[in-house]
């Protein structure tokens, strides 16, 4: 491929779509032309890229003629409907939805973990669940210290994981609750309610359906996708996902059980300090550790609270945080595209169409 690509964003008006525009500019992604696509109700809206005003077009099967890279962030059903058309038109697709993550033909890629799967052959790459990405960027470097037998994960997930509507709901509810606490007249919500429970000053189990095993959909995604990404199909992993009233950046409490004796704190710190995409924030003296406010707006996964699990001789515990919209979504997708460019021109995978 010549430098300077024709790029499309499907879901350009969403929270992740906005991050794509910012990242393309910040990282000087080689774009010759940019096509912004969304649902019919968004047609005619505009967005700005490098000072140029671009008009949103409707995402349809015929929207991908001449496109080299198509970045999808519009939900699984939209991806299932449109990704085959994009591939047929000749585009390389990088999909942020869950539509193709567990398809054995589709690489599920976290560049810092399994970037070797970006081989210059595949026409579709799946971006994993945001919680799984943040988890595995922090966990994968510890595999050099011993065989990982089990992960126990509890998450503290931000509004951004549910998209712009959930973020707006949190903002509106918080403003309403603060007004009520101050004795001001209550105002009704301006936007349609998305979540099943009050969000401001509250937390609750992740708002996805619960399966027959008692795990919600988010927890099940993290379990299945982590096994695929790490190529550990029998990995024992238990996950509890909770929605918390934070705008962006997910946090996770993680305990890693090793097959033998747990590595020392010093070994863990050394492995993490060398790992790409990881920044250690672990100051016991000042009681400063990973926080959503520190993780928001930057691309690293923050890792701290590194300590031996005194209840288990083979376990290490830590606390992590990462920006859900960046490393958990848009940044991971752009990194995959950059790796594709560096590998060279992929060829057409007819079996995917």
How would you characterize the overall build of this protein?
The chain folds into 2 domains: 5-127 and 329-352, NAD(P)-binding Rossmann-like Domain (Rossmann fold); 133-324, 2-Layer Sandwich (Dihydrodipicolinate Reductase, domain 2), CATH 3.30.360. Helices cover 29% and strands 24% of the residues. The chain has 9 helices and 15 strands.
Summarize the structure.
By secondary structure, the protein is an alpha/beta fold. Helices cover 29% and strands 24% of the residues. The protein has a 7-stranded mixed sheet with strand order 10-11-9-12-15-14-13. It has a 6-stranded parallel sheet with strand order 5-2-1-6-7-8, with helices on both faces.
List keywords for this structure.
disordered C terminus, seven-stranded mixed β-sheet, 24% strand, 2 domains, 29% helix, globular, alpha/beta, Dihydrodipicolinate Reductase, domain 2, six-stranded parallel β-sheet, Rossmann fold, 353 residues, 9 helices
Would you spell out the secondary-structure blueprint of this structure?
Blueprint (H helix, E strand, L loop, with lengths): L4 E6 L4 H12 L4 E8 L7 E4 L2 E4 L1 E2 L10 E4 L3 H13 L3 E4 L15 H4 L9 E3 L3 H10 L8 E10 L6 H18 L22 E2 L11 H14 L5 E8 L6 E9 L6 H10 L3 E3 L11 H4 L5 E8 L6 E8 L3 H18 L10
Parallel strand pairs: 1-2, 1-6, 2-5, 6-7, 7-8, 9-11, 13-14
Antiparallel strand pairs: 3-4, 9-12, 10-11, 12-15, 14-15
Helix pairs in contact: 1-9, 4-6, 4-9
């Amino acid at each position: 491929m010549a430098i300077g690509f024709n790029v499309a964003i499907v879901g350009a008006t969403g929270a992740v779509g906005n991050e794509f525009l910012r990242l393309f500019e910040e990282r000087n992604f080689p774009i010759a032309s940019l096509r912004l696509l969304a649902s019919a109700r968004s047609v005619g809206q505009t967005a700005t890229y490098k000072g140029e005003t671009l008009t949103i077009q409707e995402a349809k099967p015929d929207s991908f003629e001449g496109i080299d890279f198509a970045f999808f962030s519009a939900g699984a059903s939209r991806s299932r409907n449109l990704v085959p058309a994009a591939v047929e038109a000749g585009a390389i697709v990088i999909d942020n939805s869950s539509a193709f993550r567990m398809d054995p033909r589709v690489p599920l890629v976290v560049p810092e973990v399994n970037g070797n799967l970006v081989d210059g052959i595949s026409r579709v790459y799946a971006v994993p669940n945001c919680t799984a990405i943040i988890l595995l960027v922090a966990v994968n470097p510890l595999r050099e210290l011993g065989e990982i037998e089990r992960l126990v994960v509890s998450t503290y997930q931000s509004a951004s994981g549910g998209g712009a509507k959930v973020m707006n709901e949190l903002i509106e509810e918080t403003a309403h609750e603060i007004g009520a606490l101050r004795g001001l007249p209550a105002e009704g919500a301006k936007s349609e309610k998305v979540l099943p429970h009050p969000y401001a000053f509250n937390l609750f189990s992740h708002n996805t359906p619960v399966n027959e095993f008692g795990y919600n959909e988010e927890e099940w995604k993290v379990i299945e996708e982590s096994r695929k990404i790490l190529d550990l199909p029998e990995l024992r992993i238990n996950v509890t996902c909770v929605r918390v009233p934070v705008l962006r950046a997910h946090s996770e409490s993680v305990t890693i059980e090793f097959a033998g004796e747990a590595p020392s704190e010093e070994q863990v710190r050394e492995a993490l300090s060398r790992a790409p995409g990881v920044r250690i924030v672990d100051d016991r003296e000042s009681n400063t550790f990973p926080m959503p406010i520190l993780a928001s707006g930057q691309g690293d996964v923050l890792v701290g609270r590194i300590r031996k699990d005194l209840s288990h001789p083979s376990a290490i515990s830590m606390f992590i945080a990462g920006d859900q919209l960046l490393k958990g979504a848009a940044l991971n997708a752009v990194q995959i595209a950059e790796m594709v460019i560096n590998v060279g021109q992929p060829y057409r995978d007819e079996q995917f169409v």
